[in-house]
Design goal:
This protein is of the alpha/beta class. It has two domains: 2-144, Nucleotidyltransferase, domain 5 (2-Layer Sandwich); 194-374, ATPase, nucleotide binding domain (Nucleotidyltransferase, domain 5). 38% of the residues lie in helices and 20% in strands. The strands form two sheets. An eight-stranded mixed sheet has the order 5-4-3-2-1-6-8-7, with helices on both faces. The longest helix has 25 residues, at 289-313. It starts with a strand and ends with a helix. The model has no long low-confidence stretch (mean pLDDT 94).
Amino acid sequence: MNIAVINSGSSSIKFQLFCMEKEEVLAHILVEKIGEFSSETFFEYGDKKTSIRSVIKNHHDGLEKIIALLSEYEILKDFSSLGAIGHRVVHGGEDFQKATLINESVLKKIEALIPLAPLHNEANLEGILVARKKAPFTPQIAVFDTAFHSHMPKEAFLYALDYKMYEKYKIRRYGFHGTSHSYILKQTAKYLQKNVKELNVITLHLGNGSSACAIEKGISIDTSMGFTPLEGLVMGTRCGDIDPEIILYMQRALGLSVDEVDTILNKKSGLVGICGKNDMRAILASDEENAKLAISIMVRRIKKYIGAYMALLGRVDAIVFTGGIGENASLIREKVMQNLACGIEIDISLNEKNSLFISSKKSSVKIMVIQTNEELEIARECMQFLNI
């Protein structure tokens, strides 16, 4: 069976086509800069890689471009021949705790959640609407980033606010990157040759957006992102944890509007706020003091979360790095693992090689580097939903 996975962003569409018998990628297409003067489409099919510049006005045009490429190279005649289409949806609120068949009721709930993730859910919804027009009779399944964290205990997801803020407005920790954390958990179990339900793991998804997750016996019991993807670790352009009174100070004392503060916190903070760069490769190559400071602040925050999650879990079988930074930045991994308690020790040589296992032989906890694959996890969720 062939399954398509669509990850629709505010100005992009990521598309992957899988042959699920072999879990093989048949085609990968990325449409970027939708609605801009010149859009770009990156196409990978077998040994063929190409980049196409054109004007793509909206997501409908973007999906048309994808369909045209699939047809031109005789990969897929039309979307109606697909077994299913899986859609990444960032925020599922409390309504969605697993992959869900998309119908009118589901669409309305996803739309209602837009205020909780305005940068993500609106774009996700747009991709779904376009795909449903192109393939109205093909099962379309929403896979939610928040679903993996939906079984956190109440003491983990509730904030110490007036309880009515949760009851009436559903202000709580939801957590994100769940599709990635779920995939990494399963891969960790495979490599350690253990049952998922036996594992206690700390997973670190480090990229432009970053999050940590404490997983106990296969269940997410805590995660660093919260009501929105802003909370938690220091990220490329997001501040992560701060004193909430800072927001009020910025409004009262500096005269900034709500939207201006939101822009600062989400787009002008984190690594870029400290050193002017959010590309970790450029930061690591820089000799500027603020670049070194940015790394130190980021690493310190990650270490604090690891320590907290070790305390929550008691026994930790593995600490796993993933994401663009987690998979590739050996120096960041080394700094994060330095001087951790309980006999946790990294092997410098293995770490520099980006090996699967980077812990020393005498380390009390396995330290691993696993490449994430959110698209494959979404395709697997679709197969599970269809009971295939």
